[in-house]
Write a structure and sequence with these properties.
184 residues, alpha/beta, Nucleotidyltransferase, domain 5, 5 strands, 30% helix
Amino acid sequence: METTTLHPTRRVQIWFQDEGRFGQKGRVAHRWWPRGERPLGLCDRRFSSTYIYAAVCPETGDSFALVMPKVNARSMSKFLEEFSKTLGPDVQALFIMDQAGWHGARELSIPKNITPVPLPPYSPELNPVERVWLYLRERFLSHRLLKDYDAIVEACCKAWNALAADPERLRSLTSYPWLPCVNN
């Protein structure tokens, strides 16, 4: 990435961020099954859940995630603080995220090496991390019964770690065709 006049001594990286809710009330995904027959499926009526806070750099496939119990300004501040520590000393992250209430809360603490950039309202299709959630649900987190909150957290961590171990997969999921135009 190039430097900018706003941060002339730093390399600018574009990162997309979002939160995804995962839990016992899982989502049904597509399955191959003989025509005319109904597939067997698991149904969980409990409502325990957790959230994965994630940031992905589509250009490199780098990623960072934390599993947190709630979505609020305090959790978001912790996520930003931990994410900030992973950036190189010469990197300024353009952090593109939706306009959820906690993203613009007064009590939100944003580190100096992160510049938040809001997406237009009601436009989840512009955030590539939405495709990551779909991938995690379809490949790792659907058609499962999870015993309790700890099992949900463990399943989310395993799913994210399996995906994060494959940066090329993350790049393919998050590289939208219009992104190279933004980088210039």
